[in-house]
Amino acid sequence: MPAAPVITIDGPGGSGKGTVSRLVAERLGWHFLESGALYRLVGLSAMKRHVALDDEPALSRISAQLNAEFDPRGGESAPILLDGLNVVKDLRGELVGAAASRVAVLPGVRRALLDRQRAFRRPPGLVADGRDMGTVIFPDAELKIFLDASPFERAQRRYKQLKDKGMDVSLEALLRDIEERDLRDRGREMAPMRPAEDAIQIDTTSMTIAAVVDRILQLWQARCA
Q: 44-76 pLDDT, tens per residue?
């Protein structure tokens, strides 16, 4: 029997899956897995060690030996430790995000992180956010969601988020970056980003975060009825 129920929330960057997943986990009182943070940690660790982002053997070793700790509260600003140092601010940067997207296409890296992600499954339940949570990591999840939105809407969201943090960014560059990441994520050989066959797809382009969260909780309650 599975250790605990799982809700997977997959989708491309900017679809709202990170914020939505945290809020759903909070409302249910469950644990939360931000799988993208693991790939960002691998990318950041590689950058600190001056390891090329296409050196699969070296990146696989980094992934297998990753010395990382997550705060159990799982909030966006909650500490994430790499080699004992809080690197949460570094992880949210665009350079690390781009590095994560590049290392995530490597089969050796994905294999090394597989069991680590599955270990997050524990009572009373888990909400898992990522790109292959419902297809690869938790194929037996009780509820699978795939969030999406237009590339332009996702770029606008990211633009506003970074501007609110006082960062100087270009909407055009963000849109180009999102489209390039989508191509990498959907076209990678191992675990390409796609909705699971039994996933419920939600287009968040014209929806508020609160509306998406309520919709997912309604779907979960219906499953439990």
A: 999 999 999 999 999 999 999 998 887 655 566
Task: Let me know if residue 221 belongs to a domain.
Answer: no
Asked if residue 130 lies in contact with residue 74, where contact means CB atoms within 8 angstroms, the answer is no
Cβ atoms of 144 and 130 within 8 Å: the answer is no
Strand 6-10 to strand 143-148: parallel, antiparallel, or no bridges (unpaired)? parallel
Nearest to 118 by CA among 213, 216, 2: 2
Does some domain include residue 223? no
Domain assignment of residue 125, given as a range: 6-215
Listing DSSP states for 88-157 in one string gives HHHHTSHHHHHHHHHHTT-HHHHHHHHHHHHTT--TT-EEEEESSIIIII-TT-SEEEEEE--HHHHHHH
Instruction: Give a yes or no: residue 48 inside a domain.
Output: yes
Tell me if 39 sits within 8 A of 136, measured CB to CB. Answer: no
Cα 121 to chain centroid, rounded: 16
User: Model pTM?
Assistant: 0.84
* CATH number of the domain where residue 13 is located: 3.40.50.300
Q: How many CA atoms lie within 13 A of 189 on its CB side?
A: 6
Number of independent structural domains in the chain: 1
Q: What is the pLDDT of residues 168-200, one digit of tens each?
A: 889 999 999 899 888 888 887 777 889 999 999
